[in-house]
Amino acid sequence: MNDYWHASDYRAVFERYDSNQAGLSSDQAKKHYELYGANRLPEPEPVPAWKRFLHQFHNLLIYVLIVAGVVTALLQHWLDASVIFGVVVINALIGYLQEGKAENALNAIRQMLSPQAMVLRDEVQLTVDAEQLVVGDVVLLQSGDRVPADLRLFRVKGLQLQESALTGESMAVEKGVQVLEKDAPLGDRTNMAYSGTLVTHGQARGVVVATGVNTEIGRIGSLVAEVKSTTTPLLRQMDQFGRWLTFGILAVAVITFLFGILLQGYQAADMFLASVSLAVAAIPEGLPAIMTITLAIGVQRMAQRNAIIRKLPAVETLGSVMVICSDKTGTLTRNEMAVRTIVTCQNRFSLTGDGYDPHGSINLGGQAIQVEDHPQLGEVVRAGVLCNDASLQQLENNEWRVHGDPMEGALLVAGVKAGLDTNAAIQEHPRSDLIPFESEHRFMATLHHSHSGGAFIIIKGAPEKLLDICRLQRTLSGDESLDRQRWLNQIDEMAKQGQRVLAIAIKPTPIDKIELDFQDVEQGMILLGMFGLIDPPRSESIEAINQCQQAGIRVKMITGDHGATALAIARQLHLVNSDDVLTGQELQRMDDQQLSERVMDVDVFARVSPEHKLRLVSLLQDQQQVVAMTGDGINDSPALKRADVGTAMGQNGTEAAKEASEMVLADDNFASIISAVEEGRTVYDNLQKAILFILPTNGGEALIILAAIVLGFNQLPLTPVQILWVNMITAVTLALALAMEPSEPDVMRRKPREAGEPLLTPFLLWRILFVSIILTGGTFGLFIMAREQGLSIEEARTIAVNTLVMYEIFYLFNSRYITASIVNWGGFLGNRYVLYAIGLLLIFQMGFTYLPQLQFLFGTAPISPGMWLVIVMVASSVLILVEIEKLIYRKINRNRRIRNH
Ligand code: ATP
């Protein structure tokens, strides 16, 4: 039966599932839910734990270690070999756990993006999680939605679906409601909307016939699996770097090996062990895991600040954003509309009151009026209530809430203020058809048949649009020809006060007209009046725009609204200094060359359609700008995809826009983009800090071994297992603390990073070398001193290891800020994880030095308290030296900046 819904009347579906056009009751829905389960597809089988664990070994560095371990075992250095293997396993375990943690964090965030569906339950329109849908539910579709379950359509208005998820065909298909042949193939079942397909156009209602695994897509079991990538350009860059580094290290190890046996006369076996030490020392085992975790922490922090990352690379890109193109309504403004002005042919009324609370008066020339004395006003207000999809609800705490478009809600409020019984008006003039609002045509029209016998069309929309289609205007004495200039002046006046203007017109039609199409509204409309609505800017937006200015980020307002309104709001937001506005029409007339000359300077783009957005993004990108662009409709998808950081609205955005985006704003708020940029910059900083911290350790260790070989020492200052200990233990403590590093105070006062700037700048390479040399000098120095004092090789090595670790502890503080000074309270105490990590590491080092079992494993010996004092003194030198280096760097930089100005 299930297969043939397309061949039966939709009423049969209603009958089968005990439903009707007004939807299920919530009790029925609950029963169906218990019977049929959630509307969910089974999760793809997760990769089994053992496979993920094994995967950790698939890494060039690990191969090198394994080979080293095998040869060490062949040389019968059993202890060394087992420690090397132990380290390999522990390393894999740490990688596995950290990757798992990162993966979980990302999954949790993906959960925040669960799709929603609009459904009728108990005759009320509700938004529910798509998982809650059951058979028999009536689902409302509109453009941009992803169809949430298999539906038999029963009411359709210009519905087109893109069914490529199911049929592979990317052309949108027109849908209807007629009963079809039984053997119609899937692609031709035009009265069905299948789960997973995308509404590209129009509106519809359908009844759910199948959910979850019973849907067509569930049956083929191949929902376009979201590519879960945990890699990013930076990580790939690092991966590449890691491979080169490994080859480089191997080459140096081989050369050293040959040098040792040929020139220094070492034994081959000894020299092999020394070369293994060198390789092990130079390879940053912990780095890849630290980088993954740093990114994951960044994603989590962004989510806490309402920016949900859909594609991991965006975390990095966000840090280098140079231009943000933002919508106005709801993103920069609060989207809490209120009608402030109503203009009719004769008069201009002003409205008082707060928000959606319908208490307030209508004034004319400063005096409250009675609406009965102004029939034209009454007509405008009533039309605004009828051509309207929103509803107004009084909550228990006496607050008022709007369901639907806030602007339409404001029209309802204006109706109540005018003393109109809105429900009665709607019942008296039931709606027979509509043309829904789309941002391309900027109007909405409805067809009504009143109980008293008349029929009429109402259209409301952008005033320029209505002035074009109206030839007449309604006055007290009847309809007369349109005084275009007067209306233009009125629009200008309202817009200059930042009011969004909406015009409204009417046209009587024959009573037998039951369908509304575009021709019907193209002529003969009679202009009734105009509304001026305010939508106050969000206070956070003003602050966020100020931050952008300090951070060298340009903000551009790209809006569908009128130019003068947009400019007035932009001024309130302190977004512009000039009066330049480019409108969609002007954009259309300019060629790419002309537009690209203006695109950087102009900050307000008005009456812009979605396809203009794509052009703007492309032209900005041609000028090497990294662009974030917001959007909410399906038509914004191409621009969102093209932008470096496409940003969709979580509350008012369509599924299509979300799917095209890198990031979704949970609160639709402009300020959240800026928070995300701040976190993006922090992540990048922290990645650099992790590298800057980890690599000198390896550099130092490698130099120590190299120096010892070249100088002909017959016993190395550090054994391979000791080196592995240092690398492992500091990676899981100190380096991890850096991943938690909070934003630097000046992070939003710097210019955006240059696009394509390498992760390892010459300055960073210098720092790595500089610190490597300091570490080598101190560690090697103390080792030699210990030997000269007659201490055993075990003691001398223990001193060397502890010196190295102590260096790292001090250097960790330096690494908290790359160039800023850390010599202040914040510098030492600003990240509590640093302090925990140091505490933990010291405990480990005590065990390493004094626990007999570890002494046996690592070949260490106890050292005296006096020696600890020497170690701490020597190691603290790095703190001072690096701070001096930073001071010099800052000085040179400041001078260079002054010279450049
Ligand atoms: P932004 O792109 O900044 O979010 P916007 O919300 O002003 O701007 P659109 O939603 O595309 O942009 O609206 C453009 C114009 O269309 C509005 O200025 C208004 O004149 C008209 N309009 C908006 N919503 C409706 C509606 N529900 N009914 C009729 N006309 C509308």
Automatic annotation (TrEMBL):
GO biological process, one term: potassium ion import across plasma membrane
Keyword tRNA processing: no
Keyword Hydrolase on entry: no
Keywords for this protein: ATP-binding, Cell membrane, Membrane, Metal-binding, Nucleotide-binding, Translocase, Transmembrane, Transmembrane helix
Membrane topology type: Multi-pass membrane protein
Transmembrane segments: 57-75, 81-97, 244-266, 272-299, 690-711, 723-743, 764-784, 796-813, 833-851, 866-889
Any Gene Ontology CC annotation: plasma membrane
Subcellular location: Cell membrane
Cation-transporting P-type ATPase N-terminal domain ranges (all copies): 4-77
Highest taxon listed in the record's lineage: Bacteria
A GO molecular-function annotation: ATP binding
CDD domains listed in its UniProt record: P-type_ATPase_cation
NCBIfam families linked to this entry: ATPase_P-type
PANTHER family linked: CATION TRANSPORTING ATPASE, SODIUM/POTASSIUM-TRANSPORTING ATPASE SUBUNIT ALPHA
Family named by the database record: Belongs to the cation transport ATPase (P-type) (TC 3.A.3) family. Type IIA subfamily.
Name listed for the protein in its UniProt record: Carbonate dehydratase
Species: Candidatus Thiodiazotropha endoloripes
Species lineage: Bacteria, Pseudomonadati, Pseudomonadota, Gammaproteobacteria, Chromatiales
